[in-house]
Fold each of these.
Amino acid sequence: MAEGRPRATSHPRVVVIGGGFGGLTAARGLSDAPVRVTLVDRSNHHLFQPLLYQVAMAGLSPADIAVPIRSVLNSHDNALVVLADVVGVDLEQRRVVLDDGESIDYDFLVIATGSKTNYFGHDDWGRHALGLKTLDDALEIRRRVLLAFEAAERERDDNARKRLLTFIVIGGGPTGVEIAGALSELSRFVLADDYRAVHADSTRVILLEGQDRLLPGAFHESLAKKAHVQLEELGVEVRVGTMVQSIDEQGVHLEDGETLESTTVLWTAGVRGRRLSEAIGVEVDRGGRIVVGPDLSLPGHPEVFAVGDAASVIDQKSGRPLPGIAPVAMQQARWVAKNIKRSLAKKDRAEFTYLDKGIMATVGRSRAVAQSGPFKMSGLLAWFAWLLIHIWYLVGFRNRFLVLFNWAWNYLMYRRGARLITGERQWERLHELSEQAERNYDGPNER
Amino acid sequence: MAEGRPRATSHPRVVVIGGGFGGLTAARGLSDAPVRVTLVDRSNHHLFQPLLYQVAMAGLSPADIAVPIRSVLNSHDNALVVLADVVGVDLEQRRVVLDDGESIDYDFLVIATGSKTNYFGHDDWGRHALGLKTLDDALEIRRRVLLAFEAAERERDDNARKRLLTFIVIGGGPTGVEIAGALSELSRFVLADDYRAVHADSTRVILLEGQDRLLPGAFHESLAKKAHVQLEELGVEVRVGTMVQSIDEQGVHLEDGETLESTTVLWTAGVRGRRLSEAIGVEVDRGGRIVVGPDLSLPGHPEVFAVGDAASVIDQKSGRPLPGIAPVAMQQARWVAKNIKRSLAKKDRAEFTYLDKGIMATVGRSRAVAQSGPFKMSGLLAWFAWLLIHIWYLVGFRNRFLVLFNWAWNYLMYRRGARLITGERQWERLHELSEQAERNYDGPNER
């Protein structure tokens, strides 16, 4: 690797893979340590993932929720940032292999590669059911939703228009709840006003969840019910206990034989560890997350750590896997930085424990659910708490301010600022969409 | 065309092609007229083109300078917006033909299709020399510039790094001057700080102009000299009287035999009317602009008008063609709206005269040149005038406010908020760029 100015030191080298909440926190946590840090990421920006759905729903611009990793770390003299795709790790040689064949040696390695959309073995569904993990995913969803409205405006066939204006969100976790609520608001209060052939009550947003309640897992059942009611107030059709049989260009085929016809299907039903975690050849759990010990290092490799969505860690209190949220990744990354420093000082490592400050999900404008320990909130108060906490954690003052302003504006004016369809020759995609909507399906099982 | 709610009226139908400054102003100018307006555009947004270079230079986000055409026109009950590509006009049948074979009849037609980058017969140069006319152009330039820095950071070969850090802007008109100044500032004050292997004095920005002065045409020569000096103060190498022989992946080959090696070449040397203008089969000038009469209508077709960059109009005062700037398009569009109303009222039409309020160009942070009639300005005062006027004309309060805030922030902090590399698999493009930079060229004439 070319490093420009050669480092004068021979300090141990820490390689961090990934510039998300985990990776960035690990790099920052080592800024005062006698180490050289190299952070490798495939994209040049750190993403504030909890607000990514707002980019997909045209409420925020990409730059509102993303900062260049370099600018976050440029005051850290011991940190180097490399834009590259890591294709493998040689655990014996202690070396990270990049896509162009080059490699970077390490003394310590932090794997913070995050997660990707999990179609549970049905990767072909990905063509029809869009996942939401990256800025490009969000821009593609924004494009598809806006193009569906454009196509509906030009459509003469009533059935085809119905298919274009039916939006299906699969997965009733926090992301699914947030995106279904935002999508319903966008359709009813913003877009319906802009199109002559679209009325608020002609758009349909359907949220499908396989389990018998929303927000399964960590959220209390009373809050799940509240979220259910809040979504219905926003006009979302919520269907729990509904299993998906298959997804194709006609729409979603349910296990009970029903077909929900739609040209826009979004998938938030699951994530799994990235390919790299499996490529390394260590033990991973069912979700492709790397199994780590109590100090978050790999069994047999105390110099290698995994954090955040890349790591499989069981919560000692609840007995359940820790949720894939930013606070978990950040607490683990701080812990890893601390343990690396302890190793350098020849001290014993400490075991990681997760301090659960709570979880929350927003349901559109002015509605949310939140819980922290025994304390539960819902409605407007929870929404304000959600808003403040998310703005607070956004990296950098500028983003915080802009996001606050955008939110306030949207809230007051029912407007969306970033309703742009970008990408070359979108009118051609419009036709493809119209053709898809106009096609005749003889039966629900025809693909 | 499906129009949703059928219009109850049988008012004459005005079709406007294009949602830029001309088209949008024409549609707005007809809001109180007894007509049905249909505005057709290939993209869903109106673009504030004068600040487009700021998106390319990572200073502003796309949504800061673009608004959905629908939201601009949604309070106009007589206006319909269609996202489509117009492929032809049947002047005899009075019908506009869309890409999908559908057509729209008109009683009046306003052609406001704007212009596209003109490579003067060398369309193959477009692969290496990027033009700047659309949001996608701007995002591609932003991507290429940021990737060049990323590739330079990883590059070991000094010559290859030099090629990656050499940026060539071809064309010394207002856009070329603005982009060269902004690019030099971005390189020296923002990016150089973020990369270890890049220093302020290792980046080169070269501005090439074929004529013997900058800002040829409407600007006074004394202002051209001021802009020249201001650019040099910012570190731009300005070369006037320099003709380009060819452009390829090695860089730019000049007529005098010199080769300027560079992986990033930007082209602002000219624009021409869009293909549609030529496809209609009416008289166009050398630049592909439609020749119109004194009332801006087509000779022999009083029901068809052309405005802005799509129209070829000679200024009666200067004897030169009117410049391709927003005030010209907007004044012409207002005139056309007025003349359509006069025709409906069976009144005689009025001849268009252009009221020249002045022209200006900005040269990076806190420098600009401006002239209005005999009055000339340069430096900080001109920059403030430029800033105020551009913010004032931005469509909609929200954009105005955001742009002001972004500008102030950049000005104070030497920071750029939108330094995002988006688009799939950018690390692969990084390699292509590195390979291009590392290739050995035996002689300047080898392609």
Amino acid sequence: MQNFRFHNPTLLDFGKGTIANLSTLAPKDARILMTYGGGSIRQNGVYDQVKAALKDHEVIEFGGIEPNPHYETCMKAVALACQEDITFLLSVGGGSTLDGTKFIAAAIPFLGDDPWDILAKGAPVTKAVPLGCVLTLPATGSESNGFSVVSRMEPLEKRAFFSEHVYPQFSILDPETSYTLPPRQTANGVVDAFAHVLEQYLTYEVNAPLQDRQAEAVLLTLIEEGPKALENPTDYDARANVMWSATQALAGAIACGVPQDWATHMMGHELTALYGLDHAQTLAVVFPATMQYCRGAKKSKLLKYADRVWGLRDGSEDARIDAAIAKTEEFFRSLGVKTRLAEYGVTEGIGRVGQRIAARGEKIGEHAKLGREDIDGILALCAK
Amino acid sequence: MQNFRFHNPTLLDFGKGTIANLSTLAPKDARILMTYGGGSIRQNGVYDQVKAALKDHEVIEFGGIEPNPHYETCMKAVALACQEDITFLLSVGGGSTLDGTKFIAAAIPFLGDDPWDILAKGAPVTKAVPLGCVLTLPATGSESNGFSVVSRMEPLEKRAFFSEHVYPQFSILDPETSYTLPPRQTANGVVDAFAHVLEQYLTYEVNAPLQDRQAEAVLLTLIEEGPKALENPTDYDARANVMWSATQALAGAIACGVPQDWATHMMGHELTALYGLDHAQTLAVVFPATMQYCRGAKKSKLLKYADRVWGLRDGSEDARIDAAIAKTEEFFRSLGVKTRLAEYGVTEGIGRVGQRIAARGEKIGEHAKLGREDIDGILALCAK
């Protein structure tokens, strides 16, 4: 096992009816900026629940944070927050709203010239406005970590940052808020969480059997519960199990003491920036291809994955690895998420993905060895 | 799944050489009371590592905290801490030293008449002196939770409390510190951690498949790694895997949204108070008997445990449950921990256990239904 530090200070309040607890979780004397997305929270009752819980708080609203939240939009919220002397941010929505809110939290007190540097140049985040979250879409795990991914329209970029200062102080997770999600978002959430686990699990052996089993626990639960949530959107337990799995997928425990990959995410971010695919769509496309391309380096973990997650114990090692990759792709497709670039109309200029990553001087993957040619090779495997 | 709150703010610094990080983890301006046990830290080099890391800090020492830390000893530390204007406590040792230190932390600013009320009457802990920990014995999980168990000599009592204020701010977990543990303490630690998981897992189904699998992950890892640590005490990975398993066993995640039992611990605490058995010895004795006595109420979970933890899939339900209980007892015995009261010379007056618990008006177990007769019945099953 590798040495590690683990620290996750977020309070999670999970279950039916927990949005009412905002009245005590949100700091009493704060001036709160409530951030949200395109307005689905007005249709599904979440907006009303939040406003009712915060009736004795000072709340200013900022709506319109997009999926793959835009830097430009976030900077409008930063301006509003400064103008209104905001002291607390409350994200109400899915991972995009929350990621945008984390960036807003870091950008408000940022001392450098341009907050975009936090994303593009790793400029240090030394403080942030405290924030909380009401989650309505289980997927990104952002509700219990310090990660944020933000996109810029000009020039087209999608970049991530991490800071210990942007862990939510609390996150409220009421599975009932996910009842009204469109199937596409439910399916995307399951794929996203599944891919988060794979990024931390499908690397190489470092003798960390507990972390391996904790990762498999999330994968097996998503395979079992994801389809139930899709089939019966108001199945409380299925929704709760998917929501908790998505949180646990990226709350830090399964990353303790093990190497991590994240190559698929790096390529996926470029595909979203260039072609507008949903984040989970990019992962469903790229992950099986990454497994295939890196099957040598990932061999021992692919065999463990085949055995423990898919029950594949017969045949040669190569046959089991082939079958595990096929099972992964089938699982994504069974949720309705397509797994080939051509199916999303992406057929031209795919070389730009590797070009853009290489231009930043980055090599990716758990060995930091994958360069432009490898990326081309991976994307060729999932072209059609 | 049941509603739940999860909040674990402890920073864990895990791995070889991490004691040196005390120099930055311990608050710079604090007056630190360093607490420890019987002095094994002087033999195994931990004392020297801690002192070296804290050479620029103000440190006062308090040694001699016993296994099953004594209220009387803790109160001496409270007096010293008040006299010396201590502002931070650093526990260096195993779970007993840490549990004692948590009680000291809560007792120093306690506003009631008698700090024993925190343990005996659930008197509220509204604040505590901040504390940190260097762990040398993986077992109790105290390094990452708000629990503490303290014993009193007159009258004989062993009682527990929980407070959000006594989570360690940080815990340093260097698996190498466990190389020199006597086999009895290594084995006890594995049994203790295993029993902690069972208390949270072997109850009844509430449709929480992720938490079930996370619990099984810890159990399977302890079964695999515990014997390796005993056989080869300087096997770093085995020591690391046992240490991380013991922490994860009681850090809160597997308790999320599920019922909990703790009847075995309640009976075990009485056996330690009355007869002086090691904590883990009491668990090794009582747990198989509790499984046997409560096999009806715990049926579905016992069958899951038989299947997933012990691979028992053949035969009738009763036969599988019998086999799973036998496997559990065999596992404890294989580690060298005896599982019958008579083997510890306990043959007389066992009825006092149920009597004492009943006298407090408590019913125990996940259904809070087990009373004096049930306790007598359970202890009869593990008498000899």
Amino acid sequence: MEVMEAIRGRRSIRKFKPDPVGDELMRTVLEAGRWAPSWANTQCPRFVVVRDSEVREKLAQICPGRWSASVRDAPVVLVACAELGKSGWYKGGWVTDKGDWFMFDTALACQNLMLAAYSLGLGTVPIGYFDAKKAARLLDVPQDVQVVLLLPLGWPDEKPKAPLRKELKEVAFAEKYGRPFIP
Amino acid sequence: MEVMEAIRGRRSIRKFKPDPVGDELMRTVLEAGRWAPSWANTQCPRFVVVRDSEVREKLAQICPGRWSASVRDAPVVLVACAELGKSGWYKGGWVTDKGDWFMFDTALACQNLMLAAYSLGLGTVPIGYFDAKKAARLLDVPQDVQVVLLLPLGWPDEKPKAPLRKELKEVAFAEKYGRPFIP
């Protein structure tokens, strides 16, 4: 699948078929995450592949209602984590006003994962609204690692329409902020 | 270009030819950012297309030495910004222990931009290490908006090798954190 076709065509999928997702497909998806760029190549993102239905059920219980079904029903939940103290750091300290850049680097990898999954016919939905501390305890995530995102993944059982996007001129500017970029 | 080919083949490019990048190409790249997913479709990322060489020179001066040449020499510097108070919020407040998710959503869009650029033959390099407050003043960025990333963009004048990546089993785990995923 072409890059721009994947970028435009990817939708968040919340309903999944029960069919499993094989290891080879999972490897391709995870490789996509591994190849994302990162702060000075520090590679802070980590991913836990959760297939165990009891663990998925427990993860579903720490999401608000609207999102729990995807976590419960998807054959795989990728749990995106990040090692702290790497991204955004230089010589033992933060070097920007953003502090630790773990959220940024994890998202770069997650976007790769979502695009790769879509190109293989798989659906995903990024879920940030859940109790990350409880997820960390459930998956034995160490203290210096943050749980960032739940990414249910599986074979789509719906074809949602694209949510409305802002116009390009509302989000892209020329030379100064607020001056619309109109090609 | 195929999705996985772009994900694996994209390299950070720090040396650019002086040739300009036309508006139609810029539109395609920016569209890729616009189509990224975001927290409850709140779409916080914004992009300023800087071509003016005097402004690029000023941006170069607020980067540490190693990165300033890319900002000075690339025909375009995309400046990624984010509206605060949207991503990670629900009913007027943050709902997770991560606070505002602007870094996450901006990175999702930036990864799309970098992949789209690469698929068009363009190079980019993400730069987070610079004085974001000075960049904001330079580009008239309002108080409730953060400047996040400088993304020099242009026609590559180098073919760098891929920096070493961690093995898949070091970054991908099965069921529990730290238990290698080996497909």
Amino acid sequence: MTPVEAVNGRTYLDNTRKLVDELLEKYLPSEKTEPQSLHIAMRYSVMAGGKRIRPVLAIAAYEYCGGDSRKAATTVHPAMAALEIVHTYSLIHDDLPCMDDDDLRRGRPTCHRKFGEAMAVLAGDALHVIAFRLMAGTGSIDAVIELAEAVGTSGMLGGQVADLEAEGINASRKDVINIHSRKTGALIRGSVRIGALLAGADEATLDRLTAYGEKVGLAFQIIDDILDIKGNQETLGKKTGSDSKKHKATYPGVVSLQQARQDAAALIDEALGVFEDYDDSILKYIARYIGQREN
Amino acid sequence: MTPVEAVNGRTYLDNTRKLVDELLEKYLPSEKTEPQSLHIAMRYSVMAGGKRIRPVLAIAAYEYCGGDSRKAATTVHPAMAALEIVHTYSLIHDDLPCMDDDDLRRGRPTCHRKFGEAMAVLAGDALHVIAFRLMAGTGSIDAVIELAEAVGTSGMLGGQVADLEAEGINASRKDVINIHSRKTGALIRGSVRIGALLAGADEATLDRLTAYGEKVGLAFQIIDDILDIKGNQETLGKKTGSDSKKHKATYPGVVSLQQARQDAAALIDEALGVFEDYDDSILKYIARYIGQREN
């Protein structure tokens, strides 16, 4: 990317992340609202930061498809919060002792380490509902259905099950792509599609952006696997090397690390391929950012 | 009730329960759909039977409000399945070792006893999503919002937290009413309201049925508490006496058993009070049935 693109893109990411934090602050029940203990646990996990890539993709897609900025506050904004919130619910449940049994997330103790298992189960459940409540607030049944499909048994939850069942088994490259496409890819793809749907995108644009979402979604998880091997625990805010310790099916585990890097780069190129060369889209910047991220 | 009412009501209940089972069979992914292990666990819990009182209330309210029977298959039917499914998700998570730690539900091992904790967490999550997917399938954003409010932190989940936090504490009658109204009452009230909303009920009717739903919802849980003390384990399909063993806040625990029976009966009378005497409604039969149930 050109230096100008890089600067504009970085500013866009920074500003959008601030917006995401404001939206989450606004839409999550306050710590003083009953039941306080539950709302404190929910906020603890959601407000712990993170890359906020799903809401960023949703609004970038909304804008790319010509979504009305005057309607953003009642359409794509609640959707952005819903996407980050549903992602956080999945992390909380994924971290539970009976699942991945993780102690650290985003540089802090995981929800169940901080508040106990019962509260973590309930906080995840409560975030799950709030996500649907917010998505319904957009007034778009299509967006609600899209969210449900993305996180349901043919999407994210199906991927989580396949991920658990692949532990300790000799998975193939095809198996890992299948797991990653659902576990992480489906919600990333869904985020792009929801932004486009709320903007009233035509079929052809929706199809192109769906392909984009699939490619960056899979690339995102391959790079997550690479960072779990090569990344810095401090930058990542979670323990590295944990995939291998748990005998998880990872992409670099079935091809070489170098091949994994090449395949991620190829996926990013394919994602960029859905745009015309002159198309100066923030979605192009985000694809490159995902390809180069270090946390 | 007159003998004729009782026979008609009993037939209505039996037929509607059959319909509910058919709808659940139709809407839940089959055991042969990937991920099979997850779908098997989901079906195990949903198809274990139960009183199906929430979908029964939804369709009875739909019919009471003059809902079009020709549109039932695309409106109230998916809503009925959604209500039973969301209820089942809450039972699965409630039964987890970190929550109520129950071994028996509807006469069978609980989901985590049968399939393990990780699968039970995921099966609950997956049923939670499917409920929203089905409710969105009605095309009514209002119904989706109603479901989210009923099971969210100001409804069912708030009640679950309060219930956990009240264990071993000297709760007052007011505390218990507060817990029961949210933990059980909110979804029962929501079921009645969703049926009415899908039928296009006017404000006044919706208000009356909301009051009805609140009364029968609270009565339902008070009778649950009574049955936990006096009921027969075989008829109930779950262990009796478990509330007291866990030092749960129960209604008969804060007033006498006799007073609890009287208060439940009074609530049923109040629920019946929203109807005119000549109003020959199945909702009246269901209120009486809830007041007299033995499982």
